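dumping these here so i dont lose them again. two proteins, back to back, each one seq then structure tokens. dont judge the mess
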Amino acid sequence: MSLGPELMAVTLASRLQAVPIANPERIGFLLLPGFSMLDFASATEVLRDTNALLGREAYQWFAIAPSENVVQASNGLNLRADRTLHDAPRLDRLFVCAEVEVELGDSIKLHKWLRALERDNCRIGAIGAGTYVLAKAEMLKGRSCTAHWQLAPWLLEQFPDLKLSRHLFESDRGLLTCCGGTAVVDMFVRIIATTHGRDLIDQLTMDLQVDRLRSQDDEQQSAPLPELGSRPRKLQSAIRHMEATLETPLSPEWIAAQVGVTTRHLQRLFRLHTGASPGKFYMDLRLRRARLLLQQTRMPVLEVAVAVGFSSHSHFSKRYRERYGLTPVQQRAA
């Protein structure tokens, strides 16, 4: 006989009654202007559903704003925060939530507040561009971290020694960082799993309709790889090498050697599956990344050029205009 969802939850809660009831874990989300509503909602829905399945308040969460109580998300919606930095409660964990434009990310006052929390045994984490804030606060030294793949060139330009991975989320000596998006669900379910049993995790993933719970070892998908998921592995490997070296472009001969094919075979693979030569495809990757940095960061145009492998501003401008019909300066103004 199959059990309905409500009866399953009741049965699960009764099985967990023997677990000693501790004080709720208090989790704060520092929402910087332009934060992702998807990131915040994904995290809090996992916590809400966990409480419902347990039949008790195992987790409390607080939306914290830097100063004003109302914070605007990246989708334009305004969210009224529970607290500000001035009256934030004692927390067990805090996640810094930010998008590409990290307003207030350079605030010395904010950095001091974050470091004080960590000294007070609060476990600090970051979602999306929150990683930038922790790097500016000098809280990532020597620790592995991650951020959304679109931010990687910008972050490494700002912090060359950053131990940045392509993983969906990272855990290193108490520090949790996540690339954002649906990966927030994976990370938070994993957080729950460290405290509660397999029964709860199975029910939680069913409730949230998570088909496959991804792990810390899973890598982010980055364009254009999703388009090429069914293409030859040698081609995907070549593209990964290209994406990882936009700042210092490699020769087709070197890439071919790395993936174990001849240069001529590499040329055939690219023309057959992408319609472009390796060189043209590589250039398009670099220009797409440049466009993203121009649209979504405040990096000076010259720094953007360097970040995508151009040593000459005029060459960068010429190539960009050929591709997008605008110069980089015009793109930034637009």
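---- next one ----
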Amino acid sequence: MRLIFCGTPEFAVPALETLCQGGYLPALVITQPDRARGRGQKISAPPVKLAALQAGLEIYQPIRFNSEECLDRLRQVQADLAVVVAYSAKIGAAALAIPASGWLNLHPSLLPAYRGAAPLQWALLDGLPVTGNTTFFLNERWDAGPVCLQETLPLDTQARYGEIMPLFARRGADLLLRSVRLIEQGCAPRIPQDDSQATFAPLLRAEDSFLDWSQSALRIHNRIRALYPEPGVFACLKGKRIRIQQTRLHSAAASGLPGEVIQCDKQGLVIQTGEGGLEILELRPENRGSMKALDFINGARLRPGDRFENGGYCEPAPPATEPSPRESPPAGHDPD
């Protein structure tokens, strides 16, 4: 079977490698152009391009996927099937019609749930105990084509996006290989999706990174899991941005305002939310590396009653000043 493979990020690399190991070397690998990335804005190749180079595969990086030039290149390959994994471009009707067996996509959700660009993050945001992977045939609507195969995968209550995405990529790659074999054998399922059950998972926005302590501890915890490691979830403390990276629910009874430190000792750092307590396990202060909460407590000199503010713009903390000579010293203060 002659294949085209379309993919770009790290998530797509296991799928490409698994297809090659299974005897399906793509005749052409299509990936996004090299782009500036990171803080230094250094031009770098997408992960799929690097994997294709290592495998000795032909690579094509069109600027506009649905251009006539790109369509001509697709026709020249004379592929039986095109496989797409996180390519980051809409496949137009003209391109969909070219491979004889169509286009097969790997999507990390149990379609029709979580159609869109960020399915696994939204599953974590919603606190799902189970989600999975789906292979399906593309049509002209986003993630709405007939399903080939599905596999369910559990989500632990402490699971974080950056940690589980490689697992979904590996398991999805195996599911994709099984699907390709069924297509080659002419017995692949094509199960229509029930549009009435569809939910959607759009790209996350910048404001989704701003922590709101008035929300419940469970909702905040799920947001932190879903946005780890990037773009992250931020709060403010004493005028500095703090990236909250790992938390767990705490049984503390409500005893303070949302964002208020209600426990700060060797037993842990617990913050009051709009509903319940939330223990911070790991965080990253502004211009610092990641650290455990207990290490942060010692350096930041936190005390019960201190308050984390919501994320977003952090008002600079007022500078510490000495009392005016006309001010009375605080109660219990010994001027000597």
